[in-house]
Amino acid sequence: MTSFKTPYKIIFLLIFGFFEIAYSQTPTTSPTSVENLTDKQIETFLKEAQTRGLTETQIEAAALANGYTAIDIAKLRERINRLKTGTAEVKPTNTNDIKTDKVTREQIGELAERTPVVASDKQEVGKVLETFGSELFSNKNLTFEPNLRLATPKGYILGPDDELKIDITGYAYQHYDAKVSPEGTIKIENLSPIYVNGNTIEQAKAKIIERLKTIFAGLQNGRLNADVTLGNVRSIKVTLVGEVTSPGSYTVSSLASAFNALYLSGGPNKNGSFRNIQIFRNNVLVKKIDVYDFLLKGTLQDNINLHDQDVILVPVFQKKVKIEGEVKRIGIFELNENDNFNTLLGYAGGYTEQAYTNTINVRRNTKTEKKLLTFDPQTSTNFTVQNGDQFYVGTILDRFENKVEIRGAVFRPGEYALGDKIKTIKQLIESAQGLREDAYANRAILIREQEDLDQMYVPVDLSKLLKGEIADIELKRQDQLVVKSIVEIRQERVVNIEGAVNNPGVFPFAENMSVKDIILLAGGFTDGATGKKIEIARRLYNDELSAKTVQIISVDISKELNPAEGGAKLQPFDKVFVRSLPNYEVQQPVYIVGEVNYPGTYTIENKTDRLSDLIDRAGGLRQEAYIAGAKLYRNDKLVFVDFDKALKNKNTASNLILENGDRIEIPKERQTIAIGGQVLNPTRVAYQPDFSFNDYIAQAGGFTDSAFVKKTYVQYANGSTNRTRSFFGIKVYPKIQQGMSIYVPTRNRVRMSPAERIAIGTGFVSLSAVLLTLIRLI
After folding, report:
1. What pLDDT sits at residue 583?
2. CATH numbers and ranges of domains, the chain
3. Candidate from 110-114, 337-341, 635-639, 764-768 with smallest mean pLDDT
4. Dist. CA 679–CA 699, nearest whole Å
5. For the whole prediction, is pTM greater than 0.85?
6. Nearest-10 Cα torsion for 494, 500, 501, 505
């Protein structure tokens, strides 16, 4: 037994102590303190004791024999009782401030010292609604802790362990700390004990000052003052029984209230009453608490201070009902015996703005099944409520009983109330401030709901109705009057202008619009525009079959756009075309660079200027110019031109007409020929007039094994190309010129797989056999 250490030792001793009295030696180590045992260790001890059939007497005798005192056994018995009842004594948070036989004014029973109570019927999606009031005692933000740092409360009744602070001030000073003894007295130096137990703080003060006068004469003539205040307060024990989440005894401050104790215990459980909580003191009912008074009215008049050994009883609820639907506070509510539906509705916060209040549905449990009741809450104000009733408040219909609407070409479209002021279409239009000027009054549409809710269109001639030529139409609920504008019922009218104007495009048509107007809207004429030969393309509207679908109107106007001169009037959808002057052209630049006397930028003088003309204007060719290598770029693309022919014969097709942006490049004479591709030594060699094509290939070492000789091609200095031609195996190579490049491509040989070679060989063998057979037959 000497090898056992830690709190497990006492468990072992208590379980097997009865047998160790006869057979074991007394342990040499001191017993372990009961306070160091955990609840789990004590629960293990209880299970082992039950298994072995040990009685409490046997266990206590074993503990006494092993060195534990009667106080230790009493503490252990108390903890075992709390574990059996499911409660735990709440201890103060700061043990340094609470010493032996001294309770400071710190809260006993902090929220952090107890297990948070989680309501099992907390409202979530798919779960049952919680009882109204249950969140009060499970909310971590509410503790109902008494304020222990306030002034000495009036009417506070003193008891053992309370501490009084006595101060004498004036021409002399004296301070006493007096603690109320278990006998109910306090002791002051040089005075006999003063009995204060059961006295209020005011009664105790008067009694103490009276006794102090015997040793302080200044208290009699008023030259000294005496003050008695409450210092540290005692702790008390209260018991909570009945339908409590965690029933049992709780150690709380003597300033604690009923709500404080209820909160520490987790409050009423799912069967507990929130309306009839009872407080017993000395076996006498002193207070009934209705939690709803606090929740709904904010009053704490029932939250009285507790006394030592008070008992709080939470009985079983008598009546709970549920209310759902269009009420402000959905939930389950506990009702008193005389409460009716109006009381329940008040607890639920009343109806929402969408509530249907003519009838309320109730689901009620009978002895055998459920039944549905419907009542009018306005006439049945005292509808009797039974336990388990479920009330449902419906929603009003999403429709209007007196709404009419007007839309479209009126000054104030919108919804209006059908009633004394608005009964007919004419009154509705007047309420909407009348028709707009663009309203199409010859036909409006009245949309009306039929009995089966299908819509019906009723045509209305508003022009005649407003003049009184036809009878006014009486409106019905949900009627909608649609008034279209003239613009809405026709295609958008526009005119179009193209050609020599600054901002061509589409413009809205307006009455009395002329050609000059649209030209002005388009930013006026361009610099090269002419007012002559302006054409107007106009649509034809006729039912006759004709090949002519558009009318062309020719107009001549001055470019000054003088409004006094008038002009042709336009019609909707006309298209206007403005021409430019016949010979008007914007300057068009061309460029020449290279071996000419005056390279640079030139402007095309007339529409017949050609390549040779530009070279002449540039001062002609220089002596080192190589005309065969000249190039023409048009729109940044190379155009192959034989400049030699163009200069020798200006009427030849090679002498192209110049276009805007043309660029001519004339290089110097090139005296080499480049050879590349599939030759043994790609190189550049000097041009030799007497060399043939093959001579130049030889200069590069000849063709490689991969050369595709038949596809050899050349590129001349002017960018043009030429290829090798063959005829019955005779190759004709391109003509040799200075500055050209020779290129020999690669032959892409397709290698056959072994299977393909076998197949071809087999084919030849078969073909040979067929040929031999034919020869023999012949």
Report:
1. 83
2. 8-85 (no CATH), 117-147+235-314 (3.10.560.10), 163-230 (3.30.1950.10), 320-393 (3.10.560.10), 403-483 (3.10.560.10), 494-578 (3.10.560.10), 589-666 (3.10.560.10), 672-744 (3.10.560.10)
3. 110-114
4. 10
5. no
6. 30
